């Protein structure tokens, strides 16, 4: 289960938080249903709740700008997410990373990776982290994760290791 004490980072009018209470399931599912999230699809509300509650989630939020919004206690608007499936000690799988298009190009994705890296770097027994990336803008995405997250492309056979996978019924991909 995720750490009960959430972490928070602030920058300009934005917040990154690991608080489960701030996650906006309807926003995440709407993004899952969008074309720029080609690797996933909308899931049931029950599956969304279960998935998020069993992950270390880094929600990205635009903070209220006006005093009226603040006074009315308007919750921050969710504009991004990165989900880490982990034991919070030795292994992390980064998935479901997004910043909605109108907020892209502002350095928020880079900052999100820095916050995740800060968290992972605090785990002294971390053996490694993985992610799947590619798609229509694969080279750019790979360069981004290499530069800001320290990821490297896994070369099959490295250390005698291979990576295997199995697709489930929820996969949007036909091949393995």
The helix/strand class is alpha+beta
Element-level helix/strand string: EEHHEHEEHEH
Shape verdict: globular
- Percentage of residues assigned to helices: 25-40%
Number of strands: 6
Largest sheet: 6 strands, mixed
Strand % is 15-25%
Whole-number average pLDDT? 88
Count the helices. How many? 5
Uncertain segments are: none
Short description, anyone?
This protein is of the alpha+beta class and 176 residues long.
What would you say this structure looks like, in words?
By secondary structure, the protein is α+β, with helices and mostly antiparallel strands. Helices cover 27% and strands 22% of the residues. The protein has a six-stranded mixed β-sheet, with helices on both faces.
SSE topology:
Blueprint: E1 8-11, E2 14-17, H1 25-32, H2 45-53, E3 56-62, H3 67-71, E4 77-86, E5 91-99, H4 108-121, E6 128-131, H5 138-149
Parallel strand pairs: 5-6
Antiparallel strand pairs: 1-2, 2-3, 3-4, 4-5
Give the tags:
single chain; 176 residues; alpha+beta; 5 helices; 6 strands; globular
